[in-house]
Design a protein that fits this description.
Layout lengths: L7 H20 L7 H8 L3 H7 L5 H23 L5 H18 L1 H9 L3 H19 L12 H24 L6 H10 L3 H11 L4
């Protein structure tokens, strides 16, 4: 896959600011991060910050979008080369989501505690858009929803459900595997899978 040229100095500056952002967040997640404070920690000028970002919330949005979405696209391309049924493909894709974000649990927890949940939403939305760019109509319209108004709410429900499920998984120590969490997530939209999960985990809570 061809990637557009990116200025190495700009990449370095943005990575320094991302590191500074998460360092400050770890030190005091309840304190609002000031741009002057962040630039001093990163060792960059304020004008450098405003060259790349409009606000501090754009830093984690850049960090995860730049890192994960590219990984996700590669995952999708590799998945399409496998001989998978639609159900297998969706399960494989959802497993990737839980595997990747499971490794980012500390950062995600800090972001949500600091009030940046919308950043996680935006990143997952970018991943969803990347999914359709790569996969297109290979598996048809999975949701079956064509009305744009209903689709907007459906997308919000879909992403927030994933975030809530992910947070519960992280808060309870990630006792289930990423593959099991993928099955649980998919059981909400693939009815046959719900019965299979009930049989696997039993009726007891």
């Amino acid at each position: 896959m061809d990637t557009p040229y990116q200025n190495p100095l700009a990449i370095r500056a943005k990575k320094l600011m991302a590191e500074a952002f998460f360092d400050l967040l770890r030190e005091n997640p309840s304190e609002k991060i000031k741009i002057t404070q962040l630039c001093k920690r990163a060792g960059v000028a304020r004008r450098t910050f405003y060259t790349h970002f409009n606000g501090v919330e754009d830093i984690p949005r850049f960090f995860f979008t730049d890192h994960w979405v590219n990984i996700f696209k590669e995952h999708l391309i590799n998945s399409l080369e496998k001989d998978l049924s639609p159900d297998q493909f969706f399960h494989f894709t959802m497993s990737h989501l839980f595997e990747y974000w499971g490794k980012q649990a500390e950062c995600v927890s800090l972001l949500i505690e600091a009030g940046f949940r919308e950043v996680i939403f935006d990143v997952i939305l970018a991943g969803r858009e990347a999914y359709f760019q790569v996969v297109g109509d290979s598996f048809g319209n999975f949701s079956g929803i064509t009305n744009p108004i209903v689709s907007k709410y459906s997308i919000s429900f879909e992403i927030n459900t994933f975030i809530d499920l992910y947070c519960m998984w992280a808060e309870t120590g990630m006792q289930q595997t990423a593959q099991e969490m993928a099955e649980i997530q998919l059981s909400f939209i693939i009815p046959d899978m719900l019965q299979k999960l009930s049989e696997r985990f039993g009726d007891n809570p």
